[in-house]
Amino acid sequence: MFTGKVAVVTGSTSGIGLGIATALAQQGADIVLNGFGDAQEIERIRSTLEAEFGVRVAHDGADLSRGESVREMIAHAVSRMGRIDILVNNAGIQHTASIEEFPVEKWDAILALNLSAVFHATAAALPHMKQQGSGRIINIASVHGLVASVNKSAYVAAKHGVVGFTKATALETAGTGITANAICPGWVRTALVEQQITALAQRKETDQESAARALLAEKQPSLQFVTPEQIGAMVVFLASDAAAQMTGTALPVDGGWTAR
């Protein structure tokens, strides 16, 4: 489906981002991975995707908390791969605390990575997409871009911002062949969520799996985690011709969380 196209996926060396990168590579897209981690493991991921799907795969370790680095990442991707067709802004971090106890440095870091990086990557990619007359911007927001939870003020603020920014991007690019949409996952059992499960297990003095079930029962009526593969499939759809007239949407993939 995407042979000859190039996708940049932020935060894609693990979790949801890797699921997205894999799904796009499976459909023939050349991939620029981004993320931190063990260099050997990242190279293993890069080379495996390249060999398994017969596509070009590069890695850019840009620090997305710095706007200049984000924009350089997009420029390097275009220079290395020749174009950019699909931008998936996925990278994110989390910290939980009450508003009055929320560390200022954590607030700033979450807003920088979860929201400002989306702006910088989009701003850098749009001129190239406009020149091509086509492009797909897909922002991985969160169910917390639609509803709130306690002790997550920075994350909720950032993800609501991502949803709003997606709508603004869609309006500014309407009719150009470029679309902008947001996916809003509920609980996905990533390392980020695993930390919250561990904290819950400690508070309730229970085991990890019991805590995981309790976490789901609190918010997600399906009582099942969303998988990275399911998010990857949603990205493939939004990047396809079938979604050419879908723009400015925020699509929950949340097991019924926001249906309550």
From TrEMBL:
Signal sequence, start to end: none
GO MF annotation list: 3-hydroxybutyrate dehydrogenase activity
Pfam family, one: adh_short
Gene3D superfamilies found in the cross-reference section: NAD(P)-binding Rossmann-like Domain
Gene Ontology biological process terms, A to Z: monocarboxylic acid metabolic process
CDD domains: HBDH_SDR_c (cd08940)
Family per record: Belongs to the short-chain dehydrogenases/reductases (SDR) family.
Protein name: 3-hydroxybutyrate dehydrogenase
Lineage, uppermost ranks: Bacteria, Pseudomonadati, Pseudomonadota, Gammaproteobacteria, Lysobacterales
